[in-house]
Amino acid sequence: MSVISCILTEHDLRLVLLAAFVALSGSWVAFGLFRRAGEKLGTQRHGWTFLAAVAAGASVWCAHFIAMLAFDVRAPISFDPLLTMASLVIAIAGCGAGFHIALRGRSTSLVEVGGAIIGLAIAAMHYAGMMAYRIDGLVEWSAGYVAASVAMSVVFATLAVHQAVHRPSTYAQHAALGLFVLAVLSLHFTGMTALTITPWVTGVAVAEPEILMAIAIAVAGVSLIIAGTGVATYIIDTKATEDMTERLHHLAHNDILTGLPNRTRLADHLGREIARANIDGSRVAVIGIDLDRFKEINDLRGLQAGDTALRIIGQRLNQLLRDGEFVARAGGDEFAAVKRFREQSELLDFIARLEGVLFTPIHLGDFQAVTGASLGVAVYPEDGDTQERLMSNADLAMYRAIADVTRTTCFYEAHMEEASRARHTLAQDLRLAIERNQLELHYQVQTSVASGEICGYEALLRWRHPVHGMVPPSEFIPIAEETGAILSIGEWVLRTACREAAGWNIPHKVAVNLSPVQFANADLARVVHEVLLQTDLSPSRLELELTESTIIADKARTLHILRQLKALGVTIAIDDFGTGNSSLSTLRDFPFDKIKLDRSFMNEVEHSQQAKAVVRAVLSLGKTLEIKVLAEGVETDQQLVILRSEGCDEAQGYLLGRPQPIVHLVHSAKSVASGKPAEVAGATIAPKRTKRQKAG
Ligand code: C2E
Ligand code: MG
Ligand code: MG
Fold it and tell me: What domains can be seen in the chain, in order of their start residue?
């Protein structure tokens, strides 16, 4: 019997090279998948680990199988199918366990443990495969070589996984791949060297070389299909991730509704334009745009119509852009534009085009709307040397344009900043006004037009500022509304007016103005109820005044709150009537007790037939709907005569009495005897004497 070791023929060499190729390509795919697993979390990571394990295990197994075919033992051989399958399962399961453990303990020595498990698994796979390899001869093993093969497999696989997990560089990834293939090859060839076979019958070929080659190619094909599946999955995932990243990037930089760039991109763009201007000496304008009547579309036509309008405006703005022009949606009904220019005329042309688009009617079904807009312009470098300053100065100019009904576009001027700073300081002072006792109420009489009798008093808020003196409500109430201070201030007014009215000798009504912001606060009915209880004022003596803008803000909600208030027994007046937009429908839908005709009509009623016609129409409307009408701002006898002849119910104005502090009204009460008309009013609200006064 002769001893046969491994002798490589030309045919065997091809098989060995094929095995090496299978091992290399499979490992390359497996480590790519393993890297991807490391980038994922949770279930995704398990999925990628599984793919990596299948690619690694299957390719190592296939490489081993092909290399076995190259092993010319010159003796009849057969394979145990069960053990052969078991060796494949060992390879895949072992690689899976190793990869999983290595990723779990990424910053610990578990990485190396995972690598060692993989090394052991492929060694186990090799020797299980060898046991499945039945040879007709005497098989002897050299324990030293076996031990060396296992040790090399474990060491190289451990180093490979260590490189793959700890070192992100491409070099390290290549090193990992090389080490892993080294683990596979060294295991195989050292393992085979451990083997000495003495065939019982010599000179018998295992099989025809062509058959062996066909089997080897089939096995290699399967291995490559598995690797290919891994590669395809990798590519699909990479593409999907790229698409998602691109979508997220788009979402992060664009407004969803209009598709226009958003604030983030606006800031980026402006930064770039400023940098460019610094180099080439051009100028950059930032234009803040606020739609004037957008809210109306939302209120009258619903949010969907509002969205459509914004989309149409966005599209139109986008279409007008030329080189060096940029437009973004800044949020809500605000847009912003940027224009790079050299000549002022270029900027003016851009603004004219913007205005043209913003004042073009929008068709929403059967409804046509023109939103109009207010534009504020600030120019780099003269109006601000940084991006932030420029944007905030454009905003300041825009607020100026919003406030000025005669101008659509305002250019930034230095004093705007001072005005805004002053406003800011005033807002801070206002927060402390209540606790520092700077607020007080003045009362203005309301009288019957027919009899001249007093019907009630309107409480009007005054702020005695320590530095600025008396600040008119038209100046500080909008600030209080913006900052939310109106909630506590409004409650203070309500409580003070009710408390003072409860002390009057004659139970006249007291009217208190409510801000839309107070209506937006769901607690309003509860607050009114509480104040009435605390001050002991009969609800029928309290009248609450609100303007149409309050109702338009949220019709359903306001109606609900109004019903709650009426249920308390208080009356409701609509203030400044005739200045809003939907006066008729407002009156039809809401349970008002009084219409207060805006004082602008009184200014003109003496001279303008149209104003007189409006007054007459409102009076007849009041009669039809059985709502009392009060004319505000009556300053002359002539106006009173007209009101009387037209049948107006009540009047209020400087002619009948100016707003005054309650003490003044009390003092003037003393001069009732002198017969001055205004003082008669004062007499009626002389406070009740307190118990102590009576005792005194
Ligand atoms: P309003 O409720 O329409 O109050 C009537 C305003 O017209 C008062 O101005 C009053 O002084 C003024 N006025 C009365 N008679 C005449 C007249 O014959 N001619 C002229 N030219 N003006 C007259 P005031 O006190 O400056 O208040 C302005 C506005 O501030 C009020 O308009 C009201 O909307 C608001 N306001 C005042 N007090 C409060 C308050 O406590 N809460 C809230 N939310 N708003 C208040
Ligand atoms: Mg009022
Ligand atoms: Mg009014």
Answer: 4-242 (no CATH), 263-411 (3.30.70.270), 433-664 (3.20.20.450)
